[in-house]
Known about the structure:
Helices cover 34% and strands 25% of the residues.
Amino acid sequence: MSGGAGVRVGIHDLAVATGHHVLDLDDLAARNGVDPAKYHVGLGQDAFSMPAADEDIVTMGAAAALPLIERHGTDGIRTVLFATESGVDQSKSAAVVAHGLLGLPSTARAVELKQACYGGTAALVAALGIVARDPRERVLVIASDVARYDLDSAAEPTQGAGAVAFLVAADPDLIEIEPASGLFSADVDDFWRPNDRSTALVDGRLSVTAYVDALLGSWDDLAERGGIAPADIDRWLHHQPFTKMALKAHRAWSKHVGAEFDETELATGFTYNRRTGNSYTASVFLALAALLDLDDDLEGRRLALFSYGSGSVGELLTGIVKPGYRALRRAGQVAGLLDARVPISVDDYRELHAATTTTSEARQNPEVTTGPFRFVGVEAGARRYARTGVGTSEDAIG
Ligand code: COA
């Protein structure tokens, strides 16, 4: 049970979007003179998504949310929470822009949340509280990010892009989130993006140890507060800056609690992230989407969902999958979305990467995206967006 006064609250529906392009990591390995196995096995990544010149976190986030609005309408939505660590404005929230693009009622608050990759989970927890306070309300949560590191850096193959949107509601159809969670915060400089940079700075090695510390600390806190034991958890989902990170952390957790760990257990949750690359705030929810789509035995199972945001905050939540959840997922929808991306050559990727800028100078972007929303350009210092007339990301792949 979750929420105050016995209200059951959780994730009612969830949808995914990603960037227009895909870069095959075999091509990047060839360019960098690296054995492709380093990327596929060493990092656990096969490709990464890249937004077109007329896409960004807002267009991806709104594209993820659109099918939810089409399926459920706007009734009860009085809050839009937009989690991102690749924000496009220092003041105006991406939530307000998405709210406008989606045609949501003016009787809704709209806010952006930031704490590196943890922001999506912070939004989920805030949403649970809002719905518990008034179960007639629904909260639209959007987690959307473009992971950008410097060209030719060690972190380059762990870039990516993606968005997940979900509705948080009382008596949810997909997952009921349980009330106890485990927390761990520590001030660490493992990854950050100063205001004058469009690419993140990262101490990759430190981020591995900081991530593990956060998982173990969150587990200990949850075990103490919620009385949960390792055997009570049926499936694990972790934040995946690269999927190997989740494996490393889970190995450390297994050792910490003295539990057996069959490494193939986590593979289903890696399926989409291996293909999109890092999607920061969306990453753990993309893992959740993969599990819901591809694991056929989840009814009544308890999931553990570990979120890590560099800097750092970790939170471990648990949830119970609802009976009948499978009927709500469209088999093959996300795989189709990923298959439909347009391959980009390494030369074109490098050019697009270098051209990506956060400047407020006037410009018109080329028309490239086939998604439902476009980042048209910058006018009078403000970013302009438009609906393209294309259907939802789900329609786009049939
Ligand atoms: N075949 C198979 N595996 C190989 C290989 C090969 N030919 N060559 C190397 N590897 C393995 C290495 O053994 C290593 O595995 P291990 O970590 O299990 O030992 C892995 O590939 C990576 O190699 P490494 O030399 O450590 O990579 P790197 O120094 O080039 O960069 C990161 C790796 C993770 C540090 C870097 O990609 C990074 O910083 N990414 C960003 C991480 C991030 O975003 N953190 C913040 C959020 S948590």
